[in-house]
Design goal:
377 residues, Beta-lactamase, seven-stranded antiparallel beta sheet, 14 strands
């Protein structure tokens, strides 16, 4: 069968990105995907192609897919909007806005520590039942009660499935509305970004099925195994085996089930690449952007067991996992290959979304697309 064609548009100066996109299908087992690039707020690449379900349903212009941890940056952006409006501060204790969070010695944990994976809450030691991940109150209540796994601020470890609940509940406590509604009305709506937390049933037809070739189901959570508790407590928290269900798609699990496409994610990062304002819309001031992209945690990660580097909810570029050659680039990878990033020096926003799970740390599909993008600048 011939490789899929790339639909959409691509500035002739960025033809190498189109070629890299097609090469992913020809050489890297791509099934369905989209890629988008903007420079100084102008869209130069908006491509899509392939299959939305592995069985021939075409990937269309508006096909949504789970971009997994790309959503963590959307949680951070929502909190940054509230910081810009003076509703909270980077150095505020979380418990000032969420009193129950002070339990078990967490009263001094700051907002900045929470969003930079330093709070010591990468998982829950209390075993939860399957389906608990769909119960916001249950998840946030359990996290508020959880004793920290290390002294907050003394180390960092990737909060795989918990950062979204923690940051999202803080949004709710400060704004008085749910995280999903706040993001939709205060961020995605004004930006015109097709990014969702909790997919409406009428959009189900747009959602691509996610494919996990060679990935085994996670074993039941083991109280004696921290890795197990981080990734699979409650069972199904990481999406493997549940990501294509209606329950998963309609749920709000901001760490892991943001649904969008490359164009939607790139729209958000175009705003960030421009310093917090885009096309007459102002969401963040320069000082807030500087705080968001300052290095807050770097070095050995207690969960991932390798070096990581974080700002306020964003992954910062590092030699071990570069976001292109720009030293000030920031963004967030999603499990299996998705990526959204900004390079404010280059005025660049880049996003990639796909439905075949690939390599967890350095996926050659997003790396080849990003390299081609920089080669065209």
């Amino acid at each position: 069968m011939p490789p899929p064609a790339a639909s959409g548009r691509c500035d002739p100066a960025f033809a190498d990105v189109r070629e890299a996109f097609l090469a992913n299908f020809a050489d890297r087992d791509e099934v369905g995907a989209s890629v988008a690039v903007s420079v100084e707020g102008r869209t130069v690449v908006d491509l899509w192609g392939g299959s939305a379900d592995g069985q021939g349903r075409p990937w269309s212009r508006d096909t949504l897919v789970d971009v997994f941890s790309v959503g963590k940056a959307m949680v951070a952006l929502s909190l940054l909007v509230l910081i810009d409006r003076g509703r909270l501060d980077f150095d505020d204790p979380v418990a000032r806005h969420w009193p129950e969070f002070a339990a078990a010695g967490k009263g001094a944990v700051t907002v900045a520590q929470l969003l930079s994976h330093q709070a010591g809450l990468p998982g829950l030691r209390q075993l939860l039942v399957p389906g608990a991940v769909y119960d916001w109150e249950r998840m946030t209540g359990a996290l508020a009660a959880e004793p920290p796994w290390w002294d907050p601020g003394s180390a960092h470890g990737y909060h795989v499935n918990t950062l979204g609940f923690l940051g999202g509940e803080l949004v709710r406590r400060v704004s008085g509305t749910s995280f999903a509604r706040f993001f939709a009305t205060e961020v995605a709506g004004p930006l015109g970004a097709d990014v969702h937390f909790g997919v409406d049933p009428h959009d189900d037809r747009r959602v691509a099925d996610f494919l996990f070739p060679g990935e085994a189901a996670l074993p039941p959570p083991d109280p004696g195994n921290d890795w197990s508790l981080v990734y699979n407590n409650p069972p199904g928290a990481s999406g493997l085996g549940t990501v294509n269900s209606r329950d998963w798609r309609r749920a709000v699990h901001p760490s892991t089930n943001c649904h969008s496409h490359a164009r939607g994610v790139a729209r958000v990062y175009a705003l960030l690449a421009a310093g917090g304002g885009l096309g007459g819309l102002h969401l963040l001031g320069r000082s807030v952007m500087a705080g968001a992209t300052s290095e807050l945690a770097v070095g050995p990660d207690r969960i991932l067991e390798r070096s990581t580097r974080f700002g306020f909810g964003f992954q910062l570029t590092q030699p071990e996992r570069p976001l292109g050659p720009g030293p000030e680039s920031f963004g967030h990878f999603g499990a299996g290959g998705s990526l959204g990033m900004a390079d404010p020096v280059a005025g660049l926003a880049f996003a990639y979304a796909m439905n075949r799970f690939g390599q967890r740390w350095q996926d050659p599909r997003n790396q080849s697309l990003l390299a081609a993008t920089y080669a065209c600048l």
